[in-house]
Design a protein that fits this description.
OB fold (Dihydrolipoamide Acetyltransferase, E2P); 5-stranded mixed β-sheet; globular
């Protein structure tokens, strides 16, 4: 559990936040390998009640857990907002389905409190703390996500993986741990109907759109500045930058906080889709329409 002694060991941590029903949860980003759309899932007989089944993820068997069932919530039909968090569990990947992913944020240790004593029991020992933001108006349940997705089902999940790793999920003969070195990890996002991506190493955070202060006489694509933890962040409207029609900010609009080299800026996008890994050789240089376009774009096959 989070304690004063543990808090003293770090100043801030980076969390992937997500929703299950009306509740918001957070997981340390270091344990989240990818965030993908819900794939086609094969049911597995005699599995634990919260194990949805398994899928093929680039030639590897990925056990899938239903997050709602894991946390004793009522099941619901999947929709386009559902995502799978791919979690690294002791070197093995396990997926957990969530209703939607919200943000990737940094929180200070001082914002994390011990959970109430009443929720501390053997069945909820994966609750590490409660994150209090916006003067306590926003509460995020901080999970030990590795413990949550393994729990008493770790052995059963590993057995299930062995049982179904035959012809139903043929492994890619070229897939190996060495491939990780040539994979690119990307954050994909939407502008209108078009999907774009940026290397995850450039993305420092993914946040909701905060209150924006307009700045007079700046470039048309600069919406203004915001304060993020007492630091000013310029906001670039990518729709305007790409010459697209403006669109009102919605609940799905996000800001990618991006390292631009010499400075940090926020890029406003319509919706963040996934955090994915793709082989580097699937990324091709785009057709050269201008000298500038080649610097901005690469195309994924």
């Amino acid at each position: 559990m989070v304690s004063a002694e543990k808090n003293a060991g770090f100043h801030e941590c980076q969390l992937v936040t997500f929703h299950l029903g009306d509740d918001e949860f957070g997981a340390d980003v270091i344990h989240v390998k990818e965030i993908v759309r819900v794939p086609e899932i094969t049911r597995v007989p005699n599995a634990l009640s919260y194990i949805e089944g398994a899928c093929n993820l680039r030639g590897h068997v990925l056990p899938i857990i239903d997050g709602r069932a894991r946390f004793n919530m009522e099941k619901k039909e999947k929709n386009e907002n559902n995502r799978v968090l791919v979690i690294d569990v002791n070197g093995k990947a396990t997926g957990i389905i969530v209703d939607r992913v919200s943000e990737v944020i940094r929180v200070n240790a001082s914002d994390i409190e011990e959970p109430p004593q009443i929720v501390k029991n053997a069945n909820a020992d994966y609750v590490n703390g409660i994150v209090k933001l916006d003067n306590g108006n926003r509460l995020i349940m901080l999970l030990d996500i590795v413990k949550a997705v393994s729990g008493d089902g770790e052995t059963r999940t590993q057995t299930m993986e062995k049982d179904i790793s035959g012809d139903r999920f043929p492994k890619n003969s070229n897939a190996s741990s060495s491939n990780a070195a040539v994979d690119e990890q990307l954050v994909s996002f939407l502008l209108g109907k078009e999907e774009y991506a940026i290397g995850i190493m450039q993305v420092k955070e993914i946040i909701r759109v905060p209150d924006i202060m307009k700045v007079p006489n700046c470039e048309a694509y600069v919406d203004g500045v915001v304060s993020i933890r007492n630091r000013l962040l310029p906001l670039i409207n990518l729709r305007t930058y790409f010459g697209m029609e403006p669109k009102a900010i919605t609940d799905q609009t996000r800001v990618l906080v991006v390292d631009m080299g010499g400075f940090t800026a926020g890029m406003i996008v319509d919706k963040v889709s996934e955090v994915i890994r793709v082989p580097a050789d699937m990324i091709l240089p785009p057709p050269k329409f201008s000298a500038q376009s080649g610097e901005q774009l690469k195309v994924q096959r």
